[in-house]
Amino acid sequence: MKELFTKIMQGYEGYTIGKMLCYISDPKIISFAGGLPNADVFPLDLIRKAAETSLKQDWDQVLQYSAVPGENDLMEAVIDYLKRDDIHIEPENIIITTSGQHGIDLVGRLFLEPQDLIVSDLPTFGGALASFEMEDAKYIALDIEEDGSDVKGMEREIEKSINQGRKPKFIYVVPDFQNPSGITMSLEKRLSLLSLGKKFGIPIVEDSPYRELRYRGETIPSIYSLDKNQGNVIGINTFSKILCPGLRVGFNIGPAEVIQKFTFIKGGNILNTPKLNQDICTAFLREYDLETHFDKIIKYNSEKLNFFLQAMEENFPEEMGVKWTKPEGGLFLWITVPENINTTGLFYKAIEENVAFVPGEVLYPKDLRRYDSMRINFSYPTKEQIAEGVRRLSKVIRQHQAQR
Amino acid sequence: MKELFTKIMQGYEGYTIGKMLCYISDPKIISFAGGLPNADVFPLDLIRKAAETSLKQDWDQVLQYSAVPGENDLMEAVIDYLKRDDIHIEPENIIITTSGQHGIDLVGRLFLEPQDLIVSDLPTFGGALASFEMEDAKYIALDIEEDGSDVKGMEREIEKSINQGRKPKFIYVVPDFQNPSGITMSLEKRLSLLSLGKKFGIPIVEDSPYRELRYRGETIPSIYSLDKNQGNVIGINTFSKILCPGLRVGFNIGPAEVIQKFTFIKGGNILNTPKLNQDICTAFLREYDLETHFDKIIKYNSEKLNFFLQAMEENFPEEMGVKWTKPEGGLFLWITVPENINTTGLFYKAIEENVAFVPGEVLYPKDLRRYDSMRINFSYPTKEQIAEGVRRLSKVIRQHQAQR
Question: Which residue from B6, B39, B97 is spatially nearest to B244, judged by alpha carbons?
Answer without folding.
Answer: B39
